[in-house]
Amino acid sequence: AAAGRDYDTSLIQANAGDDAQIARIVESLWQRAAPPTAIIASDSLVAMSLLRAVAQRGLRIPQDISFIMYDNFPWSEIVAPPLTVVAQPVYEMGREAARRLIADIRGERVGPLPAFGAELILRHSIAAPAQ
Fold it and tell me: I want to staple 37 with a disulfide (CB 3.0 to 4.6 A). Which of 7, 63, 74, 129 is the partner?
């Protein structure tokens, strides 16, 4: 909104469960009249598959497309280029999810969901869209 762009919900793709599905999603996105200028991967497995699909299309990050992923796995900073990530406290989030599930099974009150922070770690995988 701050950039004056409309929010296009059709760009959000779910069910990226395996390499074949991700390849189909990438194919459909690049069939659009205006292909995306950036991709955000929901996790590291989706990120690896998306990186493969982007490379197979001959696209370069960030020259042709910007790339951001969730979770700050060590490999994300040693690939070329190092990837911009949204770091989350995944261990703490998983521990809380398990605690809530166990409490629910026991019939205990789970209480309010704690707030988990996130941090954008800028590296070299994003650039202004090509004109």
Answer: 129
